[in-house]
C-alpha cells in the first residue's frame, strides 16, 4: 500500500496543506541570536532555536513524526536525524539547539539510510490499510514513508505486534485505534502542554509502551475533556474524528470564528460541498493559536439538526397552530402588527432585543431598526443579564467599557486573581492558556464560593482560595484594597501620574477606614482574614498582577460596584497599561462584547455614544436620515414590567431565549403572554418562540458573513460556508422588516454595514473587511492613531484622561438566607453545555450533562437526609422546581449550585428579579432557597411540559427539514 | 401596587443607597438624578414622579429629593 502512495496528489487533496507550515519546535523568545549554516545556507535565529526549526525557516524540510511546533521537542522518533560538522553520530535535529557557526547537513546517503530504517521499523508494526484508512491522504506517517522512500519491510509482519489492539469508540466524536499508534507521545504531550488536563499517559515500557487513558478507563470515562488537541496532534489515524471516518476527507477549508463563548476561537471549517466535515482550530487564530474545546471543535451538528426551522411561520394567538408562510407574508404580517400596536398604544409600546450570538453587523442593524424604524430607544441585549455592569463599571473608572488586555497577556502575569469565573468550563481555551502560565509558576488566587477545577489542575499551585459567601463581593474587594493601603503597598507613582487626585484622596480616606479591614469583614464574607491579607500582599507585591472575572462578579445587586472595586484594585497597584496585568472580564457569549459595542443598550448608540448628547446623536440622525429619541429606552427587565402593566405590547427578539435565560420565569412568562405581537428570529423553536406570533427562521454562524468581537476586543471574521437553510441570513431578515415598516435598508453585503459602523463609531473608524482579511483580526480601538488596533489598552492615558477611583460601599443584598430559605443558591455553567443549551443539547455533548444537577455540601445534604441522585424540591420566594441532587465538597456549607442548560429544569423559576443597582443586571448568583426531598416534579415543570408538548404539536407536520439527517 | 411600580421604587432606592453614601445630600441627589437621567426611560421617570406626587412614602430621603429635582427638570424642559 505504501508503494502506491503519491504525496503530490495527497497534498492537493489535503486540507492540512492550507494550514500554516509546522516548524517542528516552538519559537524561542530571546534577543540573543546565533548564526548557523544548514545545507550551505546561512540563517540567523534566536539562541535556543532547534536545528529542526532553523531548517524549516529556510524551507528545508527535515522528516519528522514526534515533533510539532506547538509542543516541546521530545526526540523520540529519530526521523529528524542530521549530521553536524565536528560531532559524532546523527543527533535528532528537534532536540539539538542551533549554535554559532554550526554546520548542518540534513540529507546524505547515511542519513537517508538511517531514516529509511527508522520508518521500516515503524511500518513493521503498522497496518498496511492505507487505501481504506480514514486518514488516507492526510497522514503524516504516510507522508514520511513517501519522503524517506520506504519501499519494503524486511522484517515481515508476522512477529510480535500491536495490530490486534482493541479500538476505543467510547467518545462520541473521535475514535482511538491503538493498532495504528506509533507511540510518538504527541497526543500525551498535547493533553499536557496545550490543554493542561494530563488525561493521557504512556503506559508500560519498551515494546509494551502504549498510550493510555489510565487504569480501567476508556476515553469517555477518563479525565479527557474532548478538546481535540490529541486528535489534532496525532500524525496517524490513531485518533480520528468519527465524522471523517463516516464521510471521508474534506475537500476545502474556510476560516471562520466559533459561535460559542467569548474566547472567539478561529476555526478552519473543513468542507465537502456545503457539508461541514469537521471544525479544526486555526493555528494562526490570534485568540486560540490552534487550540479548541469540545464545543467549538465538535459540537457543530446543531447547525443542521432536524429541529432547525427553515420556513417563516405566523399565527394570530399562541393557542393556534403555526401557519407556514412565505417570507414576504411573514414580514408583512409582523410589520402590520407592529404598526397597528404603535397606532393604538403609542410609539414607545414596542421594542427589540439584539442577539449576542449574531454578528456585529446584524446587531447593529437591529438597534438601527429599533431607533430608526420603531422610532424609540427600546433596544437591549443579553449583556443586560450578564456583563452590563462591566460596561458601566469600567467606563466609570477607566473610561472604556471593555477589558484591557489580550488573552496572550496572561503569559506575562506573575500573579492571577480569578474572581467569580470558571475558565476551564466556561472559557476553556483561555483556561488552558492560563493553566500553562500557572504551570510555569505564576501565582493563583481564586475568590469563589465553590472550589473550581482550575484550582485543582495538575501541576497548578493554588496559593489562596478565598471562599466568599455569595453576595459579599464588594466587602471582599474593599478588604483587599484596605490591606494594600493599610500596609503601604500601593503604587504611588502610578497613582500620582495616571489617576485623578481628588477622587483618589476621597477614596483613600474611604478605604482606610477600619470597617473595611479583613478582620472586620470576615463575618460578612466568610473569608479568613489572614488568608485575605496574604492574598492582597501577594497581588500587590508582584510586578505584574492580572485580574480575570466572570458573571460571579456582575450578576449581583452590587455587580457594578464590584467591577469598579476591581478597577480600583488594579489602579491602586499600577496593574493597568502593560502586558501581563489588567482587568479582564471573561465575556459569556461569542459576541456579547460586540453587541454592547454596536449600540444595543437603550441609552447608547454604537461605540457607547450616549443618546442624550446632541452632537453624537446628530451624527447618526444625519447619516440615517431620521430623528432619534434623545432619552434612553426600556431595558429588558423594564420591558417585562411594562408588558405586564399593559404599556408594552410588541417585541422583536433576535437570537435570544429570554423565556429560559432570564430570571424569575413566572414573571417573564407573564410578560411574554401579555404581548400582542412577539416576533422571534431563531434557528430553533426555543422556549421564547413558544409564546410568539411570528417566527422568522434564523441562520447559523456557518450561513453568513460578518464579524464577532471577543472578550479581548478582537474583531474576527465570520465567513459563510453554506447557504442559509431558510434562504435568508439574519441581516437580510432585519432589512426586510425595516423596509416593510417604511424605513429603507439596502445593504448588499455585511461589509457595507461594517463600513457604516466605521463611519459612525470612532473606535471602529479604521476597521474594514479588507483590513480584517489582511491582518486576520483587529482589536479595537482601531483608529488613525492605532491603524492595526490596540492589543493593550490605557498604555499612555485613559480615554477620560486620568482614571477615577470609585467609592464602593458594601451594601448587603435584600436576598438573604432566612429560616424559611436557609440556603443560598448560585448558578453557573459546565464545560459540555452552553448557556440555555439550545445548541449543545442538540449534539452528542448531551452524553456528559443530560440534565441540570443541584450541587449541595455533604453537611447540608445529611441534615436533610439527602442522598446522591435524590429528587430535590428547591423553593425560593419567586417559585419552586425539582432538580437532582449531587453531593459534593466543591460547595461550602449553606450554598447550593445549579446550571440552567436544560429548559425542563426550571432553574430560573427559582431565581428572583433582584438586580444590580446601576444596570438592572439580574442577581442570578444569590437566591435564598430551601431544599427538600420530593417525589414528583414541581407544578411549573408539569405545566411547562404540557405547554411545550402543545406548542410542538402546533408546528406544521411536514415542515422542511423535519427529516433532515442529523450529521 | 403594580410589579412595575414596586420595581421602580426599589431601583430608585438602590441607586440612592449605592451612590449617595459619603456625599452630602446635595451631591448625592445630583448623582442620583444624573444616573436616572442617563439610564432610565421616559416612562420610568414619569412613573417615579407620579408615585412621588401621589404618595412617595416608600422612597428613601435621597430618592425623594432626586424625584423633586426630576420634576423641576421636566418643568424646565417643558418651557
Quick overview of this protein structure:
The complex is a heterodimer of chains A (967) and B (79). With 967 residues, chain A is of the alpha/beta class.
Tell me what you see in this structure.
The complex is a heterodimer of chains A (967) and B (79). Chain A is of the alpha/beta class and 967 residues long. Chain A has four domains: 1-126 and 146-158, Ubiquitin-like (UB roll) (Roll), CATH 3.10.20; 313-386 and 591-779, 3-Layer(aba) Sandwich (Rossmann fold); 388-585, Dimethylsulfoxide Reductase, domain 2; 823-935, Barwin-like endoglucanases, CATH 2.40.40. Chain A has 31 helices and 34 strands. In chain A, the strands form nine sheets. In chain A, strands 13-12-25-24-23-14-15 form a seven-stranded mixed sheet. The longest helix of chain A is centred in the middle third of the chain and has 19 residues, at 327-345. Chain A is globular. The two termini of chain A are 31 Å apart. Chain B is mainly alpha-helical and 79 residues long. Chain B has one domain (3-78). Chain B contains four helices and no strands. In chain B, α1 crosses α2 and α3 packs across α4 (61-78). Chain B is globular and about 30 Å long. The N and C termini of chain B lie far apart (32 Å). The mean pLDDT of chain B is 94. The interface between A and B is medium-sized, with 35 and 20 residues.
Structural domains of chain B: how many = 1
Report strand order across the widest sheet of chain A. 13-12-25-24-23-14-15
Which fold does the CATH topology of the largest domain in chain A refer to?
Rossmann fold
Whole-number total of structural domains of chain A: 4
**Count of DSSP H/I helices of chain A:** 31
Shape of chain B: globular
Q: What fraction strand of chain B? A: under 5%
Structural class of chain B: mainly alpha
Instruction: State which percent range the strand residues of chain A make up.
Output: 15-25%
- Given the structure, what is the number of helices of chain B? 4
State the helicity of chain B in percent bands: over 70%
Main sheet of chain A? Answer: 7 strands, mixed
Q: What is the element string of chain B, with H for helices and E for strands?
A: HHHH
In terms of per-residue confidence, which ranges of chain A show pLDDT below 50 for 5 or more consecutive residues? 1-19
Domain 4Fe-4S Mo/W bis-MGD-type (chain A): 251-307
Keywords (chain A): 2Fe-2S, 4Fe-4S, Iron, Iron-sulfur, Metal-binding, Molybdenum, Oxidoreductase, Repeat, Ubiquinone
GO molecular function (chain A): 2 iron, 2 sulfur cluster binding; 4 iron, 4 sulfur cluster binding; formate dehydrogenase (NAD+) activity; metal ion binding; molybdopterin cofactor binding; NADH dehydrogenase activity
InterPro entries (chain A): 2Fe-2S_ferredoxin-like_sf, 2Fe-2S_ferredoxin-type, 4Fe4S_Fe-S-bd, 4Fe4S_Fe_S_CS, Asp_de-COase-like_dom_sf, Formate_Dh-H_N, Formate_DH_asu, MoPterin_dinucl-bd_dom
Amino acid at each position: 500500500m505504501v508503494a502506491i502512495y503519491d504525496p503530490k496528489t495527497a497534498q492537493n487533496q489535503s486540507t492540512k496543506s492550507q494550514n500554516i507550515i509546522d516548524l517542528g519546535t516552538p519559537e524561542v523568545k530571546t534577543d540573543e541570536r546565533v548564526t548557523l549554516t544548514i545545507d550551505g545556507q546561512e540563517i540567523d535565529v534566536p539562541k535556543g532555536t532547534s536545528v529542526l526549526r532553523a531548517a524549516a525557516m529556510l524551507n528545508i524540510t527535515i522528516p519528522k513524526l514526534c515533533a510539532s511546533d506547538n509542543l516541546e521537542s521530545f526526540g523520540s522518533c529519530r526521523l529528524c536525524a542530521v549530521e553536524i560538522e565536528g560531532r559524532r553520530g546523527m543527533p535528532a535535529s528537534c532536540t539539538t539547539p542551533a549554535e554559532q557557526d554550526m554546520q548542518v547537513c540534513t540529507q546524505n546517503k547515511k542519513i537517508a539510510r538511517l531514516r529509511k530504517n527508522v520508518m521500516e521499523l515503524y511500518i513493521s508494526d503498522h497496518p498496511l490499510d492505507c487505501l481504506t484508512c480514514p486518514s488516507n491522504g492526510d497522514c503524516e506517517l504516510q507522508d514520511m514513508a513517501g519522503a524517506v522512500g520506504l519501499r519494503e519491510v524486511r522484517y515481515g509482519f508476522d512477529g510480535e505486534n500491536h495490530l490486534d489492539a482493541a479500538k476505543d469508540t467510547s467518545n462520541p466524536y473521535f475514535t482511538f485505534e491503538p493498532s495504528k499508534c506509533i507511540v510518538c507521545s504527541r497526543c500525551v504531550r498535547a493533553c499536557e502542554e496545550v490543554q493542561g488536563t494530563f488525561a493521557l499517559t504512556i503506559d508500560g515500557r519498551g515494546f509494551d509502551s502504549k498510550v493510555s487513558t489510565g487504569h480501567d478507563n476508556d476515553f469517555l470515562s477518563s479525565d479527557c475533556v474532548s478538546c481535540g488537541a490529541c486528535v489534532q496532534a496525532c500524525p496517524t489515524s490513531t485518533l480520528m474524528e468519527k465524522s471523517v471516518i463516516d464521510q471521508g476527507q474534506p475537500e476545502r477549508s474556510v476560516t471562520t470564528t466559533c459561535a460559542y463563548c467569548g474566547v472567539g476561537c478561529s476555526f478552519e471549517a473543513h468542507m465537502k460541498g456545503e457539508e461541514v466535515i469537521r471544525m479544526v482550530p486555526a493555528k494562526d487564530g490570534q485568540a486560540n493559536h490552534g487550540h479548541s474545546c469540545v464545543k467549538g471543535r465538535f459540537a457543530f451538528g446543531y447547525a443542521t439538526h432536524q429541529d432547525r426551522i427553515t420556513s417563516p411561520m405566523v399565527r394570530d394567538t399562541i393557542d393556534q397552530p403555526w401557519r407556514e408562510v412565505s417570507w414576504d407574508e411573514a414580514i408583512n404580517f409582523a410589520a402590520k402588527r407592529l404598526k397597528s400596536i404603535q397606532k393604538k398604544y403609542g410609539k414607545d409600546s414596542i421594542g427589540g432585543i439584539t442577539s449576542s450570538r449574531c454578528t456585529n453587523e446584524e446587531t447593529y442593524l437591529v438597534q438601527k431598526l429599533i431607533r430608526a424604524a420603531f422610532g424609540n430607544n427600546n433596544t437591549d441585549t443579553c449583556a443586560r443579564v450578564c456583563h452590563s455592569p462591566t460596561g458601566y463599571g469600567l467606563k466609570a473608572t477607566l473610561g472604556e467599557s471593555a477589558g484591557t488586555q489580550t488573552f496572550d497577556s496572561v503569559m506575562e502575569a506573575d500573579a492571577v486573581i480569578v474572581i467569580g469565573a470558571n475558565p476551564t468550563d466556561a472559557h476553556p481555551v483561555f483556561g488552558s492558556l492560563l493553566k500553562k502560565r500557572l504551570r510555569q509558576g505564576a501565582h493563583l488566587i481564586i475568590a469563589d464560593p465553590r472550589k473550581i477545577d482550575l484550582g485543582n489542575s495538575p501541576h497548578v499551585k493554588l496559593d489562596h482560595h478565598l471562599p466568599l459567601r455569595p453576595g459579599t463581593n464588594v466587602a471582599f474587594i474593599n478588604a483587599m484594597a484596605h490591606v494594600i493601603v493599610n500596609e503601604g503597598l500601593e503604587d504611588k507613582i502610578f497613582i500620582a501620574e495616571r489617576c485623578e487626585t481628588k477622587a483618589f484622596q476621597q477614596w483613600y480616606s474611604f478605604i482606610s477606614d477600619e470597617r473595611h479591614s479583613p478582620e472586620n469583614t470576615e463575618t460578612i464574607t466568610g473569608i479568613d482574614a489572614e488568608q485575605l491579607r496574604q492574598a492582597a500582599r501577594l497581588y500587590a507585591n508582584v510586578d505584574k498582577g492580572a485580574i480575570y472575572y466572570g458573571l460571579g462578579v456582575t450578576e449581583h445587586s452590587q455587580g457594578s460596584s464590584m467591577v469598579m472595586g476591581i478597577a480600583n484594585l488594579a489602579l491602586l497597584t499600577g496593574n493597568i497599561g502593560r502586558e501581563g496585568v489588567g482587568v479582564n472580564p471573561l465575556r459569556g457569549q461569542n459576541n456579547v462584547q460586540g453587541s454592547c459595542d454596536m449600540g444595543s443598550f437603550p441609552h447608547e448608540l454604537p461605540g457607547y455614544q450616549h443618546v442624550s448628547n446632541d452632537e453624537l446623536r446628530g451624527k447618526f440622525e444625519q447619516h440615517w436620515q431620521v430623528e432619534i429619541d434623545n432619552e434612553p429606552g426600556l431595558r429588558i427587565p423594564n420591558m417585562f414590567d411594562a408588558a405586564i402593566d399593559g404599556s408594552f405590547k410588541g417585541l422583536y427578539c433576535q437570537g435570544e431565549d429570554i423565556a429560559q435565560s432570564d430570571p424569575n420565569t413566572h414573571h417573564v412568562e407573564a410578560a411574554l403572554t401579555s404581548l400582542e405581537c412577539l416576533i422571534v428570529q431563531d434557528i430553533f423553536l426555543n422556549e421564547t418562540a413558544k409564546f410568539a406570533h411570528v417566527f422568522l427562521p434564523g441562520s447559523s454562524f456557518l450561513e453568513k458573513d460578518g464579524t464577532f468581537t471577543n472578550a479581548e476586543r478582537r474583531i474576527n471574521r465570520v465567513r459563510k460556508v453554506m447557504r442559509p437553510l431558510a434562504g435568508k441570513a439574519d441581516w437580510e431578515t432585519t432589512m426586510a422588516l425595516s423596509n416593510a415598516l417604511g424605513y429603507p435598508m439596502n445593504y448588499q453585503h455585511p461589509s457595507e454595514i461594517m463600513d457604516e459602523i466605521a463611519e459612525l463609531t470612532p473606535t471602529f473608524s479604521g476597521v474594514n473587511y479588507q483590513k480584517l482579511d489582511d491582518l486576520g483580526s483587529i482589536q479595537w480601538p482601531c483608529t488613525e492613531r492605532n491603524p492595526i488596533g490596540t492589543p493593550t489598552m490605557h498604555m499612555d492615558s485613559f480615554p477620560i484622561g486620568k482614571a477615577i477611583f470609585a467609592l464602593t460601599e458594601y451594601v448587603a443584598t435584600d436576598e438573604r438566607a432566612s429560616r424559611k430559605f436557609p440556603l443560598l443558591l448560585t448558578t453557573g455553567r459546565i464545560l459540555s453545555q452552553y448557556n440555555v443549551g439550545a445548541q449543545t443539547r442538540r449534539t452528542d455533548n448531551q452524553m456528559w450533562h443530560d440534565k441540570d444537577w443541584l450541587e449541595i455540601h455533604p453537611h447540608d445534604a445529611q441534615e436533610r437526609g439527602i442522598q446522591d441522585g435524590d429528587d430535590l424540591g428547591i423553593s425560593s420566594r419567586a417559585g419552586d422546581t425539582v432538580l437532582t441532587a449531587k453531593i459534593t465538597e466543591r460547595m461550602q456549607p449553606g450554598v447550593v449550585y445549579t446550571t440552567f442548560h436544560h429548559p425542563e429544569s426550571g432553574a430560573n423559576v427559582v431565581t428572583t428579579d433582584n438586580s444590580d443597582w446601576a444596570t438592572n443586571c439580574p442577581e442570578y448568583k444569590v437566591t435564598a432557597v430551601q431544599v427538600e426531598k420530593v417525589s414528583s416534579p414541581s407544578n411549573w415543570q408539569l405545566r411547562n411540559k404540557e405547554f411545550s408538548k402543545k406548542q410542538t404539536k402546533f408546528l406544521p407536520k411536514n415542515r422542511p427539514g423535519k427529516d433532515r439527517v442529523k450529521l | 401596587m403594580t410589579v412595575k411600580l414596586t420595581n421602580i421604587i426599589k431601583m430608585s432606592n438602590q441607586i440612592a443607597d449605592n451612590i449617595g453614601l459619603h456625599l452630602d445630600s446635595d451631591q448625592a441627589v445630583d448623582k442620583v438624578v444624573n444616573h436616572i437621567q442617563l439610564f432610565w426611560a421616559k416612562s420610568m421617570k414619569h412613573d417615579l414622579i407620579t408615585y412621588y406626587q401621589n404618595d412617595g412614602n416608600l422612597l428613601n430621603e435621597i430618592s425623594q429629593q432626586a424625584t423633586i429635582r426630576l420634576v423641576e427638570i421636566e418643568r424646565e424642559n417643558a418651557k
